[in-house]
Structure formats: structure tokens, C-alpha cells
Design goal:
This protein is an alpha/beta fold. It is built from twelve helices and twelve strands. A ten-stranded mixed sheet has the order 7-6-5-4-3-2-1-8-9-10, covered by helices on one side. A two-stranded antiparallel sheet has the order 11-12. The relative contact order is 0.14.
């Protein structure tokens, strides 16, 4: 009972913080989506990035440098972390030139990568540009991972590259991210045993999301028993793991799971503390959110990022934006969920595509 009261108290604090940020937004995490080009064809990719995609209108080196400079002119760069993502960031030959410039301005930064293009030269460029963190995907044991990512031999290469990064000893964090799906949920312990002694500091598990290319591969979706198993697995692993184990940031998980599977209670900060610059210059929130024209807030080729951040994003900052959903508005946990993560909202049917709170309570 005491534990439950404490948990409610923590949820109230998070709600108060989100309410405050909806009125006084402050960007602390800026995603730069470098490209939609990628050297893999992953079955779950939210942005449908891949090898055969022809991309036009990518921001040039000078354009993105100018954006970072314009932000630095108005905000303290030490208060803002740049998360470099893609597609695959390492297919852009200028990524370290740009990020060396950004770090010289005072920004801290990290990268999300599939890890396949890392080599000694890349590691030296990571050091020189003061990269602090990396998140690398491992989505199963060798056969499962390679098939999921669409690149034979990628698993062995990635494992070796994580070892190289660890031995280089300059990163604050080496995170391995695993997208849990029907093909790999039975391999979790074996994956853990593979990564725990190679320099990994954090293992982040998240479920495959019903977005992007995953909607073409629904046979990979987890069922209710899988989700319950996943929560139980993470709880148990957190008690005895030699590395940090956590569930991802998405989805309200209900009172019994919040703070049990991750360090912080759920909240979606899209447009409150999180913004992004997409590959083509569009100003947006988390890159996983559906890119509906009405949600794009501007473009850095014609708009000043800071002015857009401070004066737009109104829809994202409305805490009642999803309350028109009958399922959500009548839910006893509405206050703590607020319609759940924006990236998994079904705009056509005005409801969440995935309600883990409902599933974990045995109602979904």
C-alpha cells in the first residue's frame, strides 16, 4: 500500500512537470535526422529508410551548420543535447564535420546507429568531434538479427564494433537497443549474455511499434502474453544485471509497472522539451511521429528554428489534444497517460494504435 501511494505521488509530480512544460516549453533534446538513406532495410523502421530510397532536398553541410549557429545565438548550447539519427547517420560523409562544428559551439551530442559502418577511422572522428553517447541496435541472435535488419553478416560486425568502441574508452554511454518482436522474444537471455561483457553500459528494450514498415510486418507484433512476459523479464533483470536494463521511453504502463521497468515515470515530451530537424529541414517533434502536413511546424530553410519552437507547436502542447477519444477520456489513468505517445496515435480513427496500460491490465 505504501509503495502504491509513493508511485501515485511520483506520477503526480510527472503530471505537474508536463503541465508546467506545456505552458513553459524548454527544448533540451534536439534530434537531427541526417538522412533517410540507410545501408539496411529493417522490418520495423518507422521512417521506412533503406538502401534503395532516392532522397532529395537533404540539408547541406552549410545549411545545418547555420541552423546550429542560429540556435546557439539564442540558447545556451550547454542546455541542449543533439541526438543524431537517420536513416543511418554514418552514410552522410559530412556528419562528423557538422558535429565537430556543433560541439565547438558548445553542444553535447550522441548518435543512434545500426553500427555496421563503424571502423577505426570513424571511431577517431567520433573522438575528435566529442561524441558522448551511442545507441546501437541488436535485434536478436545472429540469424534473427541479420534477417530482421536485412543484412547478412551484420550481427558479427556490430558485436566487434561495440568492442572497439569500448576499448577506445571515450564514450560516456554505450547503449544496445533491442526491438522486441515475435522473432526474438525467446532470445532475450541469450542476447543479454552476448552483450553484457563487451562494453555495453545500458540495454534498452522496447516493443516493435505499429508504425512505418512494421505495419507491413504485423506477424512480428507482440501479443498480450508477450507484453506481460517482457515486463516481468525486465523487472527481474534489473534486480541482478551487471549492466543497466531498461524499457524504452514510450507508453504509459500502469501503476504496477511504472518505475519498475525504467528509472522514470512515463511522459511524452514531444513539443515540450523535444524537437527535431528532419532530413529536408522540416521542423518537427520526435522523428517517429507520423509526418502529417498539419503537424509539420516549419522549415529551417525559410523559418528560424527558435522562433518556431517558441511560437508554434501549439497542438503538441495541448494536454487535452487526445481527449476527444472516448476510450481515453473515460480511462481512470487519463491524467497520467494523456492519450499515450504521439508517435503511436491513430489519427484516422482517433485512438491509440497501442494501449499497453489496457493490455497489461488484461483488458486488451
Amino acid at each position: 500500500m505504501i509503495k502504491e501511494i509513493i508511485r501515485y505521488g511520483e506520477l503526480e509530480v510527472v503530471y505537474a512537470e508536463k503541465k508546467f512544460r506545456s505552458q513553459s516549453p524548454k527544448i533540451t533534446n534536439l534530434f537531427w535526422e541526417t538522412t533517410l538513406r540507410c545501408n539496411a532495410n529493417c522490418k520495423h523502421c518507422g521512417s521506412r529508410a533503406g538502401q534503395d530510397i532516392k532522397i532529395e532536398n537533404e540539408l547541406t553541410t552549410e545549411e545545418i551548420k547555420n541552423v546550429f549557429k542560429s540556435i546557439e545565438n539564442k540558447y545556451n548550447p550547454k542546455s541542449l543535447f543533439i541526438s543524431v539519427t537517420g536513416g543511418e547517420p554514418l552514410v552522410r560523409k559530412d556528419v562528423f564535420d557538422v558535429m565537430k562544428y556543433a560541439s565547438d559551439l558548445g553542444f553535447s551530442w550522441g548518435m543512434t546507429t545500426n553500427g555496421m559502418l563503424i571502423n577505426d577511422e570513424v571511431i577517431q572522428k567520433m573522438k575528435d568531434s566529442k561524441m558522448l553517447t551511442v545507441s546501437i541496435s541488436i535485434d536478436g541472435l545472429e540469424k534473427t538479427h541479420d534477417e530482421f535488419r536485412g543484412v547478412k553478416g551484420s550481427y558479427k560486425k556490430i558485436i566487434e564494433n561495440i568492442k572497439k568502441l569500448s576499448n577506445a574508452n571515450f564514450l560516456h554511454s554505450i547503449m544496445v537497443t533491442t526491438v522486441v518482436n515475435k522473432q526474438n522474444i525467446g532470445e532475450l537471455d541469450e542476447i543479454y549474455n552476448e552483450i553484457k561483457d563487451i562494453g555495453t553500459t545500458t540495454w534498452r528494450l522496447l516493443n516493435i511499434e505499429p508504425i512505418g514498415r512494421a505495419e507491413d510486418n504485423k506477424d512480428l507484433y507482440l501479443d498480450s502474453n508477450d507484453y506481460k512476459y517482457l515486463m516481468k523479464y525486465i523487472k527481474e533483470k534489473r534486480k541482478k544485471s551487471k549492466i543497466a536494463v531498461t524499457y524504452g521511453c514510450a507508453h504509459y504502463l500502469g501503476l504496477k509497472n511504472e518505475r519498475e521497468v525504467r528509472d522514470n515515470c512515463y511522459t511524452c515530451y514531444a513539443g515540450l522539451t523535444i524537437g527535431s530537424i528532419l532530413y529536408n529541414g522540416d521542423i518537427f517533434v520526435c522523428p517517429n511521429v507520423e509526418r502529417r502536413p498539419e503537424l509539420i511546424q516549419g522549415n529551417v530553410r525559410k523559418d528560424d528554428f527558435v522562433e518556431v519552437w517558441e511560437n508554434k507547436f501549439k497542438w503538441f502542447r495541448d494536454l487535452d489534444k487526445f481527449k476527444t477519444c472516448t476510450q481515453c477520456s473515460k480511462c481512470e489513468d487519463w491524467k497520467y497517460c494523456l492519450g499515450d505517445s504521439v508517435h503511436s496515435w491513430d489519427f484516422e480513427n482517433n485512438k491509440p494504435k497501442l494501449c499497453l496500460n489496457k493490455i497489461l491490465k488484461g483488458k486488451g
